[in-house]
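Hello forum,

I keep getting stuck at the same step: I have a sequence, I want structure tokens, and every attempt I make locally crashes halfway through. Rather than fight my setup again tonight, could one of you with a working pipeline run this one for me? It's a single chain of 153 residues.
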Amino acid sequence: MTEQVTVQRLIPAPAEAIFDLLADPGRHHEIDGSGTIVGARSAGERRLALGDSFGMDMDWGVNYATKNVVVEFEENRRIAWQTLAPKPLSYVLTGRIWRYELEPAEGGTIVRETWDTRQEALPSRYVVRATMTDLTRRNMEKTLQRIEDVVTA
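Reply #2:
Ran it on my machine without issues. Output:
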């Protein structure tokens, strides 16, 4: 069963512009390909750093909030956060890591987004992987398109 799903796209923009967008949780609703992010729980611009936490208001048929902790950070190259959900959603939707890796390339930046469920809560880890892998891949492809749309506008 797939523990990680990765999609990538060459985006015709510098890594710095893409990273700035990813490191500002107040803008994540602009790039969310799933349509589930309502907005950041704290208003205004904010630049994330390693160890920071940030909240998101979500809507996936029911309103809920997540807490996210930045677990990987390399300026203009990599940012990842682990999403934690409150109970009762913590039994199904908590622990996954969303990772973005940026690699300068001819014509722009290769952006890789990875959905990493290796730390997803048990036993839901297996249910989530079995039921959400294809949908998540499609949503990630939409996210990369939205990132391109935002940074090239």
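The radius of gyration is 15 Å. If your local run keeps crashing, start a new thread with the error log.
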